[in-house]
Amino acid sequence: MSRIRNGVGLLSRHRWGLLQPYGCSTLTLQPRNSFSTGRITKSANSIPQLTLYTGTDCQLCDVAKEVLDKIAKETPFDLHLYNIRDNSLPDIQKWRRAYQYDIPVLHLNGKEIARHRLNKESVLDQIKQATNQSSNEK
């Protein structure tokens, strides 16, 4: 199950082509394979936390969201979208200064793992490694 959070107030198109308003709520997406496998969902602590730093009118950001949508079909994660051009968000100056010329930027559990273009296989491997590490720590 993948959740997308965004405090930006924009609309987003998810894999079924429906427009969903972003607010302070969470949009929960089920990977397609989870409908038929009946697999047990892991606790919230073991689900990798991804943060995608984006901007308005950013075509690379749209491509990155599509890559993450494909990854969501294979493994669960929580995705937080952070628009560095939205002045109402916390720590906006810090993230705008850091990434104003580099969006999209993807963080996994607080650490940067990709900039500009996301490689599906690389990101998927890193998410699976993070999932395995958190399950081994328990």
Provide structural commentary.
Pfam families: Glrx-like (PF05768). This is Glutaredoxin-like protein. The structure is a single chain. The chain is an alpha/beta fold. The protein has a single domain (2-34, 44-136), classed as Glutaredoxin (3-Layer(aba) Sandwich), CATH 3.40.30. It is 32% helix and 27% strand. It is built from 4 helices and 8 strands, in the order E-E-E-E-H-E-H-E-H-E-E-H. It has helices at residues 33-37, 59-72, 92-99, 120-136, and strands at residues 2-6, 11-13, 19-21, 26-29, 49-54, 77-83, 105-108, 111-115. The protein has a 6-stranded mixed beta sheet with strand order 4-1-6-5-7-8, covered by helices on one side. Helix 2 links the parallel strand 5 (49-54) and strand 6. The longest helix has 17 residues, at 120-136. It starts with a strand and ends with a helix. Mean pLDDT is 75; it is low at 7-43.
Topology record:
Blueprint: E1 2-6, E2 11-13, E3 19-21, E4 26-29, H1 33-37, E5 49-54, H2 59-72, E6 77-83, H3 92-99, E7 105-108, E8 111-115, H4 120-136
Parallel strand pairs: 1-6, 5-6
Antiparallel strand pairs: 1-4, 2-3, 5-7, 7-8
